[in-house]
Amino acid sequence: MATPIKFESPGRNAREVLLERLEQAPGEHAEALLGIYDLLQGLHDRGVIDALNGALRSSNFILDTVVETANAPENIRAIRNLLLLSKLLGAIDPDVLGRLVSAVPEALQQVPSPETKVPGTLSLVQKFNSRDSRRGMAFAAALLESLGKRLGEKREE
Q1: 48-101: per-residue pLDDT in tens?
Q2: How many angstroms separate the CA atoms of 52 and 58, rounded?
Q3: d(Cα 81, Cα 14) in Å, to the nearest integer?
Q4: Residues 6 or more apart in contact with residue 44 via CB below 8 angstroms
Q5: CA-wise closest residue to 137 among 122, 147, 127
Q6: Residue 89 and residue 27: Cα distance in Å, rounded?
Q7: Where are the domains of the chain?
Q8: How far apart are the first and last CA of the chain?
Q9: pTM for this prediction
Q10: Which residues contact 89 (CB under 8 A, 6 or more apart)?
Q11: C-alpha Rg value of the chain to the nearest Å
Q12: Count of other CB atoms within 10 angstroms of residue 133
């Protein structure tokens, strides 16, 4: 019968392996290390490192201040309103919003300046007779109707 061969792997110390890799790193990564040193020097020259150290030292104070500010009722309402506005903007077709955005400066250019004569009532009524004005009034009426409906729901609750 054959006798089994005993295999014993040489024990490797993980710390020694890491130290060996660390000794070889500057030669293998010289260009990257020089880039890091340049970056650190730039951050130091501009005071960024000092500012970050200060922020780390006073992190509890900063966190307490942020939480205290965020818990104010007006800030809670502002955050809720921002979320609702983002939902509103997400629901609007970008083409329609683009037309609305381009219509505002065009309409502002047609507003008479204080030096010019203000249009008369008959002139304004004639503008309402145009197809574009009726389309705008239909939009405004639909918006007012929807707004009134929603405001009525709020009162009923």
Answers
A1: 999 999 988 988 898 899 899 889 999 999 999 999 999 999 999 999 899 989
A2: 10
A3: 56
A4: 50
A5: 127
A6: 54
A7: 123-152
A8: 93
A9: 0.47
A10: 97
A11: 35
A12: 13
